[in-house]
Specification:
By secondary structure, this protein is mainly beta. About 0% of the residues lie in helices and about 45% in strands. A hairpin with a 6-residue loop joins strand 4 and strand 5. The N and C termini lie far apart (about 40 Å).
Length: about 110
């Protein structure tokens, strides 16, 4: 089974940027939607952004205009560019293929005010 590994999280100030990386151990070209979700303490996991194999994207309402999801099947990579970060973006970010139940272990993003 394909495994996903996230990286790139860290500590950043309000207004800063981070680029999260999601790299798969095998091909992702056969997957329709690959997505980023996040989970903050005490809250449910929520969709951040998703991208299908046609390059069509969808975003959670709170990140529209600030985050950009990309997809490179040749590199088995689905990065997430996050700009204009806010304290409410603080969470563990997970890369996944929801339809297949494939998830990475997550990477922590902390935004300080």
């Amino acid at each position: 089974q394909v495994q996903l590994v996230e990286s790139g999280g860290g500590l950043v100030q309000t207004g800063g940027s981070l680029r999260l990386s999601c790299v798969a151990s095998g091909s992702i070209s056969g997957f329709n939607i690959v997505a980023w979700f996040r989970q903050a303490p005490g809250k449910q996991r929520e969709l951040v952004a998703g991208i299908n194999n046609m390059g069509i994207t969808t975003y959670g309402t709170s990140v529209i205009g600030r985050f950009t999801i990309l997809r490179d099947d040749a590199m088995r990579s689905v990065p997430l560019q996050m700009n204009s970060l806010k304290p409410e973006d603080t969470a563990v970010y997970y890369c996944g293929v929801p339809a297949e139940g494939i998830w990475g272990r997550g990477t922590q993003v902390t935004v300080t005010s």
